């Protein structure tokens, strides 16, 4: 995976160097709703002592921000590599057992908060400002934390944070696609969906994959 990503980065840099006169750049920021596809509950069992009873999963709201380049190919088609900081993760709520202490009810939750560097490589089609795009995305995990909280009647009984980085794979791959609109003043809107392809569990014991919905606002530089 590392060699493939380095090769792709080299190809992108080479493409930019040969097409400098036609390349435009921009910045983009937005919000995301991240979750997992697969067995999310079991993915945390190695971090929590155990789970017992009704446990539900929820998406985690975060944000992303970064820069992109737009390389025209011709006929309304362009290549768009980008580099983003992106927050991902998910949340468990319910009856959790952490280090022998039982916390029951909806006030107990565990949040997996992951911080990634994403590099989507998109092929984009523009029809009168309306844009459709799709392509692969490669990601590197910088840090992941498991935050556990619990309380009763407004009293906070637990607020703990555990470094979960080593429990997850550093490298991730996904297929991303979406829709956008380019305004004449350089502002653009986009909405996309990332379909994770790589297992998150470093030990490959659990089939869990990142899934992310994004909505962003971009501006040409």
Describe this structure in words.
The protein has an eight-stranded antiparallel barrel. Strand 5 and strand 6 form a beta hairpin. It is built from two helices and ten strands, in the order αβαβββββββββ. 29% of the residues are buried. It has 221 residues and is mainly beta.
List keywords for this structure.
8-stranded antiparallel beta barrel, mainly beta, 221 residues, 68% strand, 2 helices
Summarize the structure.
Helix content is 10%, strand content 68%.
Distance between the termini: 32 Å
Oligomeric state, counting identical vs distinct chains: single chain
User: How confident is the prediction overall: mean pLDDT?
Assistant: 81
If helices are DSSP runs of H or I spanning 4 or more residues, what is the number of helices? Answer: 2
- What low-confidence regions span 5 or more consecutive residues with pLDDT below 50? 99-106
Spatial strand order of the main sheet: 1-2-3-5-6-8-9-10
> What structural class is derived from the secondary structure elements?
mainly beta
Q: What's the structural blueprint in terms of helices and strands?
A:
Blueprint: H1 2-18, E1 24-38, H2 40-43, E2 50-74, E3 77-98, E4 101-103, E5 109-127, E6 130-152, E7 155-163, E8 171-182, E9 187-196, E10 208-220
Antiparallel strand pairs: 1-2, 1-10, 2-3, 3-4, 3-5, 5-6, 6-7, 6-8, 8-9, 9-10
């Amino acid at each position: 995976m590392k060699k493939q990503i380095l090769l792709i980065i080299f190809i992108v840099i080479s493409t930019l160097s040969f097409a400098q006169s036609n390349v435009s750049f921009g910045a983009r920021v937005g919000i995301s709703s991240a979750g997992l596809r697969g067995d999310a509950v079991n993915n945390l069992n190695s971090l929590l002592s155990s789970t017992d009873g009704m446990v539900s999963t929820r998406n985690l709201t975060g944000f992303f921000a970064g820069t992109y380049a737009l390389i025209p190919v011709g006929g309304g088609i362009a290549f768009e590599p980008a580099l983003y900081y992106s927050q991902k993760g998910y949340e468990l709520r319910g009856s959790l057992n952490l280090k022998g202490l039982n916390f029951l009810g909806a006030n107990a939750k565990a949040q997996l908060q992951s911080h990634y560097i994403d590099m989507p490589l998109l092929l984009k089609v523009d029809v009168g400002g309306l844009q459709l795009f799709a392509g692969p995305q490669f990601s590197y995990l910088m840090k992941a934390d498991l935050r556990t909280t619990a309380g009763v009647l407004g009293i906070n009984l637990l607020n703990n944070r555990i470094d979960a980085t080593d429990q997850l794979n550093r490298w991730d791959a996904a297929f991303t696609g979406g829709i956008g609109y380019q305004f004449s003043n350089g502002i653009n809107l986009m909405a996309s969906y990332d379909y994770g392809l790589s297992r998150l569990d470093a030990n490959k014991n659990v089939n869990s994959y990142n899934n992310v919905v994004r909505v962003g606002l971009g501006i040409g530089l």
